[in-house]
What does this fold into?
Amino acid sequence: MYKTELFHYKEMKVPLTQISDYIVRESEVIRRYNTLKKPPILKNIENWLKDWETVYNKAAALNLPDITIYRPQRDFLKAIASINQGFTDNRSLLLKDAIRRKEPYDTILDLIKQFRNRIGLIQSTKDGSHSTFATLQGEQQPRGSSSTASKHTERPCLCGELHPFRECLYICEALRPSN
It folds into this structure.
């Protein structure tokens, strides 16, 4: 009898160890996910975005309910609201519209990529390091003068972003993503 109980114990020990390991991994991923729901520190936005991608992929591999339907998109948009309210408002409206119409919406990884691109555009506009200017016969425009193109980029749109009205997803429905 002792040998049969020992045999059954050894058979059960492996699955119990695997379950225990899964619970530990699950708890760690959920803890990291909940930490990411807080706004990032402005200096570490890129690392924070990479963490979102990593944690999301791990949660997906574990089939966690925390990342089902549109929960990660909502959590991500809430977290970035303090950084870029215009982007958040725009994407939240598109998400709500997709949910209402029962249509697919961008994945969280797509949303992170879009936000990363938006932040890159805003930062390059603010520091001016990526500006390109045309010259007339090789001469630069005097520093004090401004061209009409630069006046348009300096005015904020109604949505709060720095772009012309014709490029706004709020105003121009044709520019909105189909999904």
